[in-house]
Design goal:
CATH topology of the largest domain: Rossmann fold
CATH superfamily of the largest domain: ANL, N-terminal domain
CATH class of the largest domain: Alpha Beta
CATH architecture of the largest domain: 3-Layer(aba) Sandwich
């Protein structure tokens, strides 16, 4: 819950009727009010001490020695009886994961033991994990993606996992990667996109001859392979599987990865599906696709368009959630009449069973002539630009516009020059910003479909507010 606000965390604690709270010292600082009455135990994860509760408030002081958790020693008295394991109902609740979502309403996703275990077992149809594999975990374990694939898969196959206690910046990761030399990592697109923009793209486009070479397919592939080899060296040189999921990957970045033969793999799924339902192994990856159906699942396109074949992606299988906690209405809405889970994603499947996603149904914009416009596709083009951090495309007063968050260092460099040379700094700064956005607008409109061309771009000064899975909370900007 590290990405949730204090009020959101408290609401989740109340809704879930949580009795025991395991929390880090960093998160403790967010709690200023009273805890819900159901909470009986609070454990500080930094030192595994039990914290005192006074008038439903946490006292930042451990209970004396008698109240501390004792370290468990291997022995019969500390082991879970086999009988208890054997009598555990596979369909009983194993986890309730709260998703904030891009619409703002949290939902408690109920996953059973079998939901999680079946998904972990069936991942083997995409990629085999061995005892010799070394995982480096950089994503929160509160996410189904990291918990299932990054933790349970490794555990089931006897692989080792390394954790870091700091934000995974390039500076922090460098020495860790050199020491651990992982074979497996899971990330979200934002991480690889930042690495590409900061390190790879500047090297590939550093001169006019290089820019010209990158326009020619064969030489672009050669240059990409050379850059990819250096990138693999940065990650320790042993990577077999670099999983990317949670959001669309920028096309330019994926083209580099696939042409450079970097061992990346796109996976597709949701918290509600525990989470994997489709994917590829690194050697089988298809450009712009999210993979083929994972073993144990059945994916189909619900009510496809007769011309395009596009429709909502729906799925069934043993990994599909039991429902949303205390929310029968939204649980009912999440399934088709014949029991398939509605992913909310619009996509299509080719004759080989390869799945492509166009965007979220709730994000789709209806154009003036009734055509479907997918914001995510336009955003991918905008975000591929070196000076852009992120963007959000929406309809405003009948016009298609984009909010664009530019790299601070780019603006600072431009404005520093203006401050030294312009008579009216404020006016010059405004003019320069408009020039940057106008140039970006013209470039983007050259690379998107006619019906997806933008009318204007607006500078978004502050970073977009995001969900725990790093998706922009669109409802805050509509």
């Amino acid at each position: 819950m590290t990405d949730f606000r204090s009020r959101e965390v408290k609401a989740i604690l109340e809704h879930s009727e949580t009795r025991a709270l395991f929390i880090s010292g960093k998160m403790l600082a967010r709690f200023t009010g009273k805890l819900p009455r159901a909470v009986e135990l609070v454990v500080n994860l930094d030192d595994f001490s039990v914290l005192e509760l006074s008038d439903r408030k946490i006292v930042l002081q451990a209970i004396p020695e008698a109240g501390k958790l004792k370290k468990l020693e291997a022995g019969e008295d500390t082991l879970v009886p086999v009988e208890r394991i054997q009598t555990t109902d596979p369909d009983s609740v194993a986890s309730i994961i709260y998703t904030s979502g891009t619409t703002g309403r949290s939902k408690g996703v109920i996953l059973s033991h079998w939901n999680l275990l079946s998904d972990v077992i069936n991942v083997a149809s995409i990629h085999q994990v061995h005892e010799t594999d070394v995982f480096l975990s950089i994503l929160p374990l509160a996410h189904a993606y990291e918990f299932s694939i990054g933790f349970l898969v490794a555990l089931l196959n006897g692989a080792s996992i390394h954790y870091i206690d700091k934000a995974p910046t390039a500076t922090i990761l460098g020495p860790i990667l050199a020491k651990i030399r992982p074979t497996t990592m899971l990330t979200v697109p934002l991480i690889m996109e930042k690495i590409y923009k900061a390190k790879i793209r500047p090297a590939l486009y550093k001169s006019l001859p290089m820019k010209a070479a990158m326009k020619f397919g064969p030489t672009r592939k050669l240059l990409s392979k050379a850059a990819s080899k250096k990138l693999q060296g940065f990650f320790g040189g042993r990577l077999r599987f670099f999983g990317i999921g949670g959001a669309p990957l920028a096309p330019e970045v994926e083209r580099f990865l696939i042409e450079g033969k970097f061992p990346y793999a796109i996976g597709y799924g949701l918290t509600e599906t525990a989470p994997m339902i489709a994917g590829f192994s690194p050697k089988a990856q298809v450009f712009r696709s999210v993979g083929t159906t994972m073993a144990g699942c059945d994916i189909r396109i619900h009510e496809p368009d007769p011309q395009t074949g596009e429709g909502e992606i729906v799925v069934t299988g043993p990994n599909i959630m039991r429902g949303y906690y205390k929310d029968e209405e939204r649980t009912g809405e999440a399934f088709t009449d014949d029991g398939y889970f509605r992913t909310g994603d619009l996509g299509y499947m080719n004759k080989n069973g390869v799945i492509y996603i166009r965007g979220r149904i709730k994000n789709m914009i209806l154009g003036p002539n009734g055509e479907n416009i997918y914001p995510e596709e336009i955003e991918a083009v905008i975000n591929s630009e070196e000076l852009v951090n992120e963007s959000l495309v929406m309809q405003y007063k009948g016009k298609l516009v984009a909010l664009v968050n530019l790299k601070a260092e780019v603006l600072e460099e431009q404005f520093k020059y203006l401050e030294e040379n312009a008579n009216d700094f404020q006016a010059a700064m405004q003019t320069k910003t408009e020039e940057i956005l106008d140039e970006l607008l013209a470039h983007v409109n050259e690379h998107v479909a006619r019906n997806s061309r933008l009318q204007s771009m607006i500078l978004q000064l502050q970073p977009f507010e995001k969900t725990p899975t790093q998706k922009i909370k669109r409802f805050l900007y509509s």
